[in-house]
């Protein structure tokens, strides 16, 4: 049974390719986001190390510029670092020197504030780095050092500190992120495109499997084959084994049906022979009753044999529609009804149907016999090729059929009147369906119109 068509949204949700591509895209975006965060963090750490190195150099400048005032003997700074931000109030760079006598020497950028250094003990020449909140909530990166002065500078220990706004480091990290973001986005696009190509190429064998299954269904192939990737080959082998098993079962079932039908033909011939003897003995009524019953049974047996042959027949045959129709009409014209009807055909000279000629003859023969039986004067046939299909129309000029009977007319045993046994249309419908075609019935006013759609060769 074929699966119902799904809405586009549901079909997309069930797409394995879409799932894999979306999962790959999400993984790529998450991986690059993590990589971007790590790169920014690494850049921030590197920038902080450079800043600390710069602060250390500025501490060296402060130490080198220490002197004593000749007049007062107090410690003074004669050569502060040359960065102009040290002279701009709250300019982002600050230095501070705590003299041995408790005096604070400060850069102009501190204005009237001071750096609240933590109360830690530093070894002589040791350097500590801190992050602290100061100067109205501004976070600072501070490098401090404890130095013992020589006697020429009065001796004692001084505590020197140089600080910078940590916002500068954050701004550098933000600028780095802005610079690297387009490259990460481009890399994400490339990786997602590569993932899409990988998924498309990787799933191509599945599409090939679908085409091969369709070929098996249409009769163009019998097995999936083994020329498939190693990962899919076991599945194909199992499917082929299942197909072989089903074919064997169908063959056994068809053989049993054929044996049954052939087994019934001999008793039927005996009944017909008995009817002949009764007729010779003057028992005409009994003979006709036996003839009618045996004839009906024989037609059923013949139709079952046709079904069995169609089910196991060659699905790669080619039949010329005009030749098949011509042969059928020539046979029907030899019947009493056919001799009194006119056949008008409008068939192209070359129009080939993808069917075994015998199968097509069985189907069209049943349909033309039905049209001949119900027509008053004429039967019209026309055909055309259309998009890989053959469209054939059979129309008679008879009384037609009640609309409420059309839906059931193709059923097994259904009939429009009391003449015949009504199996013709049902058998024809089964044969046409087995050939991959379709049949539609409708009143033509006058008569019955039968539209056939058959696969073109």
Report on this structure:
A hairpin with a 2-residue loop joins strand 11 and strand 12 (389-396). It is built from 10 helices and 14 strands. The protein has a 5-stranded antiparallel β-sheet with strand order 4-3-7-6-5. A 5-stranded mixed β-sheet has the order 9-11-12-14-13. A two-stranded antiparallel sheet has the order 1-2. Among the domains are: 65-167, Beta-Lactamase (2-Layer Sandwich); 233-311, Orthogonal Bundle (Helix Hairpins), CATH 1.10.287; 319-455, Histidine kinase-like ATPase, C-terminal domain (Heat Shock Protein 90), CATH 3.30.565. The model is unreliable at 412-422 (pLDDT under 50). It is an alpha+beta fold.
Order of helices and strands: HHEEEEEEEHHHEHHEEHEEHHEE
Architecture per CATH nomenclature, i.e. the level-2 architecture of one domain: 2-Layer Sandwich
Give the CA-based shape: rod-shaped
Number of helices: 10
The CATH topology of one domain: Heat Shock Protein 90
Distance between the termini: 26 Å
> Mean of residue pLDDT?
83
Question: Roughly how much helix do the residues carry, as a percent range?
Answer: 40-55%
**Rg, nearest Å:** 50 Å
The multimeric state of the shown protein is: single chain
- Kindly report the name of the CATH homologous superfamily of one domain: Histidine kinase-like ATPase, C-terminal domain
Number of strands: 14
Widest sheet: strand ordering: 4-3-7-6-5
**Fraction of residues in β-strands:** 15-25%
Largest sheet: 5 strands, antiparallel
Low-confidence regions: 412-422
Structural class: alpha+beta
């Amino acid at each position: 049974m074929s699966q119902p068509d799904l809405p586009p949204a549901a079909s997309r949700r069930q797409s394995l390719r879409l799932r894999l591509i979306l999962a790959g895209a999400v993984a790529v975006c998450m991986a690059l986001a993590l990589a971007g965060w790590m790169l920014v963090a690494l850049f921030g750490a590197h920038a902080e190390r450079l800043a600390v190195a710069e602060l250390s150099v500025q501490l060296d400048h402060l130490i080198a510029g220490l002197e004593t005032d000749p007049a007062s003997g107090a410690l003074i700074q004669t050569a502060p670092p040359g960065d102009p931000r040290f002279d701009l109030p709250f300019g982002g760079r600050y230095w501070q020197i705590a003299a041995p006598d408790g005096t604070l020497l400060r850069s102009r950028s501190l204005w009237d504030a001071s750096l609240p250094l933590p109360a830690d003990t530093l070894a002589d020449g040791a350097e500590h780095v801190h992050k602290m909140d100061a100067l109205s909530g501004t976070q600072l990166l501070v490098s401090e050092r404890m130095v013992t002065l020589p006697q020429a500078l009065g001796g004692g220990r001084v505590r020197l500190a140089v600080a910078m706004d940590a916002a500068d480091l954050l701004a550098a990290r933000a600028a780095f992120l802005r610079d690297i973001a387009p490259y990460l986005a481009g890399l994400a696009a490339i990786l997602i495109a590569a993932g899409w190509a990988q998924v498309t190429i990787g799933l191509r064998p599945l599409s090939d499997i679908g085409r091969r299954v369709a070929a098996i269904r249409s009769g163009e192939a019998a097995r999936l084959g083994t020329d498939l990737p190693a990962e899919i080959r076991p599945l194909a082998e199992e499917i082929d084994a299942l197909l072989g098993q089903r074919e064997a079962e169908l063959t056994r079932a068809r053989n049993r049906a054929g044996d049954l039908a052939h087994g019934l033909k001999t008793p039927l011939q005996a009944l017909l022979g008995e009817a002949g003897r009764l007729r010779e003995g003057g028992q005409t009524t009994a003979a006709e009753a036996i003839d009618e019953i045996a004839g009906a049974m024989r037609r059923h047996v013949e139709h079952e044999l046709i079904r069995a042959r169609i089910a196991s027949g060659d699905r790669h045959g080619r039949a010329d529609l005009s030749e098949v129709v011509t042969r059928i009409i020539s046979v029907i014209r030899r019947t009493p009804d056919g001799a009194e009807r006119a056949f008008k055909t409008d068939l192209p000279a070359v129009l080939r149907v993808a069917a075994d000629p015998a199968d097509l003859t069985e189907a069209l023969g049943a349909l033309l016999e039905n049209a001949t039986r119900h027509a008053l004067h004429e039967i019209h046939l026309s055909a055309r090729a259309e998009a890989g299909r053959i469209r054939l129309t059979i129309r008679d000029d008879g009384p037609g059929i009640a609309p409420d009977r059309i839906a059931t007319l193709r059923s097994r045993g259904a009939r429009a009147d009391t003449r015949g046994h009504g199996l013709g249309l049902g058998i024809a419908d089964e044969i046409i369906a087995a050939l991959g075609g379709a049949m539609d019935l409708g009143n033509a006013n006058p008569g019955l119109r039968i539209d056939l759609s058959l696969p073109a060769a």
